[in-house]
Amino acid sequence: MTTVRLRVLMEPRHGARYEEILALALATEEAGFDAFFRSDHLMGVDPDDPAYRPTECWTTLGGLARETRRVRLGALVTAATYREPGLLAAIVASVDEMSGGRVELGLGTGWYEREHAAFGIPFPPRAERFDRLEEQLAVVTGLWSGPGFSFTGTHYRVEDNRTPPRPVQRPHPPIIVGGSGPKRTPAIAARFASEFNAALTVDGGVTGLRERFAGFARACEAIGRDPGDARLSAVLPVACGATAAETDRRAGVMRSELIRANAVIGSPSEVTERIGKVAEAGADTVYLHIYDIHDLDHIALIGAEVLPHVALSRTGASA
């Protein structure tokens, strides 16, 4: 039997109101999934979609922290371009306290240039974004380590912070870093990550996942870290139905042919089989990417017909 942490990742096609996000999070918890994650976006893939309703990622996670009881909560992934690292450290620590220690921080470089322009957020060149990501992780983890932290980098400076944010989890909330880059991404993840996410899609298939996980292992070994210390994860867009018509309807919500090409579209047994292949490639954690946040029956179906065949125990899932 396949054993993975099975999580729900929400990225609604047209955005959402908080009450809609809450309903999906509660359905995720009720169905028995390990965690509920959301994307950190202020705009949809279609920048001209007038129906898109943006919500701020960590504000909504703070609300969910008080209105859920068991599921872990996080962002996959927060854009390092959006928040200064000291503020981000305080925000995540606050939500961790509000949740009783159930928060995880996914952090990436940021990629959506049009989104940045639409909201007046600077979008540096790619190399600089990687530099900023690395410094942000150093600052966030440094502040979480305790009083007296200082840091001087190219982009950020912290001077003798004696009142650091204090998350509930020790030594700190799990940190997720990932992507498809062959060099800097695994190197940064090896230094800071509790979990390496191989990409936001499985576009390389099982072979692509194995290659990315192997690259992360090499990066860990290069700095003397045991690769087995980190979790390995992948994101899998999903459209699951009890009938062909139901499956087709759910697949129709996916926003592009690229997403459909990377997705698992089919019956519960077909979804279970695909998750098994992702696990065989090395993943111990799978995020099911959901696009229709109003379809709570979708979550219930996967929870009832897929989750029992693939999931770690709840104790194991939260480890």
Automatic annotation (TrEMBL):
**Region ranges (Disordered):** 160-181
Q: Which intervals carry biased composition (Pro residues)?
A: 164-174
Q: Which Pfam families match?
A: Bac_luciferase
Q: Where is the Luciferase-like domain?
A: 12-251
- Asked if Transmembrane is a keyword of the record, the answer is no
**InterPro entries for this protein:** F420_OxRdatse_Rv1855c_pred (IPR019952), Luciferase-like_dom (IPR011251), Luciferase-like_sf (IPR036661), SsuD_RutA_monooxygenase (IPR050172)
Q: Which organism is it from?
A: Pseudonocardia cypriaca
GO terms of biological process kind: alkanesulfonate catabolic process
MF terms from GO for this chain are: alkanesulfonate monooxygenase activity
What's this protein's name? F420-dependent oxidoreductase-like protein
The record lists the lineage as: Bacteria, Bacillati, Actinomycetota, Actinomycetes, Pseudonocardiales
Q: Which UniProt keywords apply?
A: Flavoprotein, FMN, Monooxygenase, Oxidoreductase
